[in-house]
Amino acid sequence: MGKASRGKAQARLQRQEAQQRRDAEAAALRRAAALFGSDQQSPLTLVVDTPLGVAARRIAPALPRPNGVEPGIGAEEATHAAAATWGLPDFVFRAPIRKVGSGQRELGDRVVIVGDRAAAIQVKCRQGEQRDPAGERSWAQKNAAKAARQARGTIRNLRLEPARFTNSRGREIEVDGNSFTWLAIIVVDDDYLPSDTTVDLALGDLPGVALLRRDWDFLFNQLRSTHAVIGYLFRVAPLPPRALGEEPMRYYELAAADLAAAPSPGDGEWLGSGHEHRSTPLLPQAPVGSDARRAHLLLRIILEDIATGPLSDGIGEAARLQALADIDSLPVGFRTELGEKLQEMLADVASVKTIKWRMRRLLDSGMLQLIFGACSRELDDGIAAAAESYVQLRHHQFELAKGASDERVTLLVLLTPRSDGQRPFDSTMLRLTGRSSLTKEELALRVQLWDQ
Questions:
Q1: Of the ranges 62-66, 94-98, 299-303, which one carries the lowest mean pLDDT score?
Q2: Angle CA(291)–CA(295)–CA(299) in degrees, nearest 5?
């Protein structure tokens, strides 16, 4: 076969494979529609200015509500599903039932907890036939105000008395409302809402945001990080309210402002082979992971490993949740580079027969030092002890560089190979907090081991 013929055959094969992928995606959408039903919201298309020119960004409709479920409950379930699927299910909690007098009351619709921030979420679903525009606006304003009162009540009750919440993995933690900075989030599910509808939540000193369920889904699909989504909503809560449905427009306005802003030297520092100050926009214009899907999937696998793996003695679910929040706080703009670096590190350590370590460190502008590493040897007591000594040394150096504090955290995620064929690697997490307790002799031994 000549070169031209081979080229045509290869092009034909590529077209066939592309068509097969499109057919498979269409079939998956049909299966989802059969399971969940259809959603009547129209897609929104935004025209976005980027450094490479003007681009169109399609904002998809909200996830469909599940079939066979009362619409209000279905809207809550779909809101929950978006946060648990594109974010981490560990951060999304169903509200427990608390006895009140002779009856009982649910503590809100959902609660999201990530690090030291929490959000009380109330979902309001419009049911019935379409009304005139004034009637639709009146419904939205009335129900958003009611939802805001309910969110405030949830937070107040949790500050008065802790409660046990269950997340999407079925794990329980005790939630003390006094341990978190709170945000009220009102999610409105309404297919008939006029485009200029603005609601006043009247929350006083409690920050709050109202947005369409479609826009809640957009934020999670865009950022793929619970920490990033909740951080964004805290950021916009003090700003003047926008019409319901305009959250994607506000997002891209802020993303453009982030891109144009001068880099801050405190955004982060990559350490390892060399020392480099780095800055990245908080809000990317392209969906996170669209540039390097495999790199982002690797990070998600690591998070899933830590979320589902066994806990050491004395470590509870609250500590695991905090560790996951620490990792999820990694700025989304750094994740492609980190995922690709981890792929390269795994390939590198797999190519040697001796013990080899590769490490990558990130200092944020606050109290957290994240370290991602790979080792060529399977995890055993010796490798675990060596990794612990590395964390102790870097935590001590972190304290020397930034100052002593009980709040400082150093967290290592270590990838080690497996030989049983069940999976290529294990993810192990070590987290050290507080002030360094190394003696001079212990410090000297660790410096000799790791820095010389």
A1: 94-98
A2: 125
| pLDDT tens column, 163-220 | 999 999 999 999 999 999 999 999 999 988 998 999 989 888 999 999 999 999 999 9
Q: How far apart are CA 182 and CA 178, in angstroms?
A: 9
Identify the CA nearest to 93 among candidates 158, 156, 175: 175
The residue type found at 396 is H
CA atoms within 13 Å, Cβ hemisphere of 234: 17
Q: In this structure, what token pair is assigned to residue 112?
A: 């999201």
For 88-101, the pLDDT digits (tens) are 999 999 988 766 55
Q: What is the CA radius of gyration of the chain?
A: 24
Q: Do 107 and 158 touch, CB atoms closer than 8 A?
A: yes
Residue closest to 87 by CA, chosen among 247, 274, 303, 240: 303
DSSP class of residue 40 equals -
How far from 75 is each of 153, 183, 288, 392, 439, CA to CA, in Å? 21, 20, 25, 47, 56
Q: Pairing between strand 110-114 and 117-125? A: antiparallel
If one counts every other C-beta atom within 10 angstroms of the C-beta of residue 416, the result is 21
| Amino acid present at 99 | K
What mean pLDDT, rounded, does the chain reach?
84
Sign of CA dihedral 261, 265, 270, 276: positive
Nearest CA to 374 among 359, 390, 389? 359
Residue 240's identity, in one-letter code, is P
The pLDDT tens digits for 221-230 are 999 999 999 9
Its sign, for the CA torsion 241, 242, 244, 249, is negative
Q: What does the alpha-carbon distance between residue 285 and residue 280 come to, in Å, rounded to a whole number?
A: 12
If you count DSSP H runs as helices and E runs as strands, how many of each does the chain have, helices first? 11, 17
Q: What is the pTM of this model?
A: 0.84
Question: Taking Cα atoms as reference points, which of 326, 297, 312, 292 lies closest to residue 90?
Answer: 326
